[in-house]
Amino acid sequence: MSNATFYIVNPQSPQAHREGFARYVLFLAQHFAKQGAKVYLNCDDKSQAEWLAEHFWQVPPEQFIAHNLVGEGPKYATSIEIGHQGVRPSWNRQLVINIADNQTTFANKFAEVVDFVPCDEKAKQLARERYKIYRQAGYQLQTIEIDHP
């Protein structure tokens, strides 16, 4: 069975701000990759994907995990691949972390989905729409409030 987990961003948390959110996405991607998952980070557009990829270079050397943008990197890609709407992830991705605001077009393509419910009302509504899409696609759904500093 496929699973989708929605992380609820608390307005008072560090993740409510762009840089804190990027650090949390990085933390999750590293966490899943260390467990052996092939992770795909789905962004809104190329500039957001490049912005997020840059954050992977800002970690201390002992926390570094290989990553690449879609179309770059080794033939079978790295543990973490970063892309956006209009590009296709490598065939071997099991888990997607969605940070794009738009509706999902990848329901049923990944066994595991991580998504977010942001603080902004418009973005919350889009997250609700994605939640419905995953439910209709048969995903097992859960929500988790972010309490990570």
UniProtKB/TrEMBL annotation:
Stored InterPro entries: DNA_pol3_chi (IPR007459), PolIII_chi_sf (IPR036768)
GO biological process: DNA replication; positive regulation of DNA-templated DNA replication initiation
Recorded superkingdom: Bacteria
Transmembrane segments: none
GO function terms (MF aspect): DNA binding; DNA-directed DNA polymerase activity
Gene3D superfamilies: DNA polymerase III subunit chi
PANTHER family in the record: DNA POLYMERASE III SUBUNIT CHI
Name the record gives this protein: DNA polymerase III, chi subunit
Annotated source species: Vibrio xiamenensis
